[in-house]
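Hi all, long-time lurker, first post. I run a small reading group and we've been trying to get comfortable going from sequence to structure in the token notation. Rather than ask abstract questions, I figured I'd post a concrete chain and ask someone more experienced to write out its structure so we can walk through it together at our next meeting. Sequence below, copied exactly:
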Amino acid sequence: MRRIFKSRRRALVALSAIAVLAFAGAAVAYLSSTGSGSGTGNVTASSANLVLTFSQPDFTALPQTNTVDIYATNNGNSVEEFSGLTSFSVSSTNPTTCPAGSFVAGTPSVTSQEIPADGTPHLVGTVSVTFTNLSQAQNGCIGTGTATYTASSN
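-- Answer (accepted) --
Happy to help. Here is the structure in token form:
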């Protein structure tokens, strides 16, 4: 053995070659595996209906048009999407003293938006309501709270 490694330089070259071969052998070694899996989860957020409310302007004269604000309130625990109204109507709270047709609603103007679950009313639109002049007495229509607004959202 001593003859092969006569000099330190030859020994160093031989050891380097052995190290390179060992490293090259390690570089081509690998592990392979196969597998599969699945999982499930539960959505615990609940969907809540938005509550629609309206401003109550005073109607004090014939013919008078007021703007009614439309609000959406989310009492749930997750953000809900307000994407528009599917219906809107206005009527008298007392049809005996305020005849049908005394109030006429225009086309609502609404904005689609997310309503946070904070329990506060958020303005989502407006609608013009006109106190129309009919050919019969409408004294029971004068004042606040004489019009009822009904709407539903999608």
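A couple of things your group might point at:
The longest helix spans residues 8-27.
The first strand starts at residue 51 and ends at 54.
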